[in-house]
Amino acid sequence: MTTPALLPLSGRRLPPLNLGASAFPHHRATLRLSEKFILLLILSAFITLCFGAFFFLPDSSKHKRFDLGLEDVLIPHVDTSKGGKNLGGFLIHGQGHDEHRHREEEERLRNKIRADHEKALEEAKEKLKKSRDEIQAEIQTEKNKVVQELKKKDSKPLPPVPLPNLIGINSGEPADPDIREKRNKIKEMMKHAWDNYRQYGWGHNELKPIARKGHSTNIFGNSQMGATIVDALDTLYIMGLHDEFREGQEWIDKNLDFSVNSEVSVFEVNIRFIGGLLAAYYLSGQEVFKIKAVQLAGKLLPAFNTPTGIPWAMVNLKSGVGRNWGWASAGSSILAEFGTLHMEFVHLSYLTGDPVYYNKVMHIRKLLQKMDRPNGLYPNYLNPRTGRWGQHHTSVGGLGDSFYEYLLKAWLMSDKMDTEARKMYDDAIEAIEKHLIRKSNGGLTFIGEWKNGHLERKMGHLTCFAGGMFALGADGSRDDKAGHYLQLGAEIAHTCHESYDRTTLKLGPEAFKFDGGVEAVAVRQNEKYYILRPEVIETYWYMWRFTHDPKYRQWGWEATQAIDKYCRVSGGFSGVKDVYSSSPTYDDVQQSFFLAETLKYLYLLFSNDDLLPLDNWVFNTEAHPLPVLHLANTTLSGNPAYR
Ligand code: DMJ
């Protein structure tokens, strides 16, 4: 066959095209352009076919090699008389190959390939007949199957560890009928908060009690993680609300899933979720809580992948990508966030036998120990890339608070063995007392904030937790100043009570000043709100446990009544926007910490001391009780307390 001449690009009439005598013996005549095109088209199709056949039709030599490969290893031996060798039941073919058998095998394989192709083609045709929705549903079902398999794998029980001494989970019943009645009232408030969340916000992070629907904020990311359920579990348990506890447990078992594309706050998830799950595990003994806590902790670990090991503030649970809050000074991480992981992470290492969690928090501690501190104070901001402080702001309230709390509690939780943490706590509060604590003209002790080289005479509601902290740390204090710290705790409790008492609603503002003739009163409109926070009541409870001074129960009862009167709505409890206004407006949020902390501390305030005794339990910063660990014999290393 001759090769056709190349077609010219222009459209002018062409000289006769010689297609070769053997191809068209009777048609040597000149062809018209359209005919030429058709013929060329046929020819090029023919050439393509030949080309395809050459490259894609089965090459028997390739098959031979493939067959040999297979046969060489795996064709079971039936007959060795044709020259093959028998090794352990399988025949290795050598010379004397049976050609006939080989062709049969080749044919069998070819048929199989053909059948497989046809099957795949049929399946593809079937798929194409389906609608987009049907195909998507099928993909989702497949995905779910994979997720279920992964879940099964993740839910394997963890190695058992001896449980610490779990004392005082169920008692606390007061003999005094008046106290019992008050305690029952607080339990009723818990039920009101829970039932409404159950009805209107179930599975959402929080509740909007007026709009009667779910609510969330960026700290929980964009997925429904049932923050209120997890945060409320241990309160339900100690109040004896066991049906509600079981409902919560069931939801967690079936729905709490951390493989979500959601960016959460490492600190908030640690204190509310990991703390809540661990406490629920210790109280109830239900394995599911421990498993979920460990799964979640694994998702937080990528946040520590920074040049210094100081974790990012936020992490995406799926991708593990971390970053810091845009508002934080010079891209810094926040002291109260990366410094409030210790209790939960030590428990995670204890329960799993995996030191990874413990090592992360000890690394943070070691790094902080090495750093210079202006005036002995810890600034609120630390850059996780450079390891340098950001702005020199120091606070015992927002951005700093629970870092100091966790130094003390690390010591308590280690059965007072972690003396390194105690020393850091003692050093820190000495500097705080020297530079931040003052008495107002009216004689109120307050804790101000250090900003750009001067003291701001303003105290936050959050800072009021420190009264309880000073009392809790009194025993074991340096130079045996127990009396002094108990007194300091009492003074802070008094100041914070004043901040409540000087309002119209008898509820405390978010921040209050001690300046220009103002004492314990909020000045700016945007500091007059009360969002169901616990810190003042928390301090009343600690002071009550250490002194049994009845005024703490009285103050706690005042707060209970005010919350019930001004924050209660038919759909739950709401924060209020102005505690100085006689007709308050609501913020329409029932915070999860209201159930975790505020109502728990109130309930404990009206219970006997044998309910969760402080010698055996340490409360994390979200009021989740974790047992004291007697770790002298464990393999955790790096800290004298855990050797
Ligand atoms: C709680 O989530 C914790 O107590 C945290 O440490 C700071 N404050 C809120 C409640 O006010």
From TrEMBL:
One of its GO terms (cellular component) is Golgi membrane. Pfam families: Glyco_hydro_47 (PF01532). It catalyses: N(4)-(alpha-D-Man-(1->2)-alpha-D-Man-(1->2)-alpha-D-Man-(1->3)-[alpha-D-Man-(1->3)-[alpha-D-Man-(1->2)-alpha-D-Man-(1->6)]-alpha-D-Man-(1->6)]-beta-D-Man-(1->4)-beta-D-GlcNAc-(1->4)-beta-D-GlcNAc)-L-asparaginyl-[protein] (N-glucan mannose isomer 8A1,2,3B1,3) + 3 H2O = N(4)-(alpha-D-Man-(1->3)-[alpha-D-Man-(1->3)-[alpha-D-Man-(1->6)]-alpha-D-Man-(1->6)]-beta-D-Man-(1->4)-beta-D-GlcNAc-(1->4)-beta-D-GlcNAc)-L-asparaginyl-[protein] (N-glucan mannose isomer 5A1,2) + 3 beta-D-mannose; N(4)-(alpha-D-Man-(1->2)-alpha-D-Man-(1->2)-alpha-D-Man-(1->3)-[alpha-D-Man-(1->2)-alpha-D-Man-(1->3)-[alpha-D-Man-(1->2)-alpha-D-Man-(1->6)]-alpha-D-Man-(1->6)]-beta-D-Man-(1->4)-beta-D-GlcNAc-(1->4)-beta-D-GlcNAc)-L-asparaginyl-[protein] (N-glucan mannose isomer 9A1,2,3B1,2,3) + 4 H2O = N(4)-(alpha-D-Man-(1->3)-[alpha-D-Man-(1->3)-[alpha-D-Man-(1->6)]-alpha-D-Man-(1->6)]-beta-D-Man-(1->4)-beta-D-GlcNAc-(1->4)-beta-D-GlcNAc)-L-asparaginyl-[protein] (N-glucan mannose isomer 5A1,2) + 4 beta-D-mannose. It is a single-pass type II membrane protein. Keywords: Calcium, Disulfide bond, Glycosidase, Hydrolase, Membrane, Metal-binding, Signal-anchor, Transmembrane, Transmembrane helix. GO terms for molecular function: calcium ion binding; mannosyl-oligosaccharide 1,2-alpha-mannosidase activity. Its EC number is 3.2.1.-. Its main location: membrane. Disulfide bonds join C464-C496. Residues 148-178 are annotated as: Disordered. Involved in the maturation of Asn-linked oligosaccharides. Progressively trim alpha-1,2-linked mannose residues from Man(9)GlcNAc(2) to produce Man(5)GlcNAc(2). Belongs to the glycosyl hydrolase 47 family. This is alpha-1,2-Mannosidase.
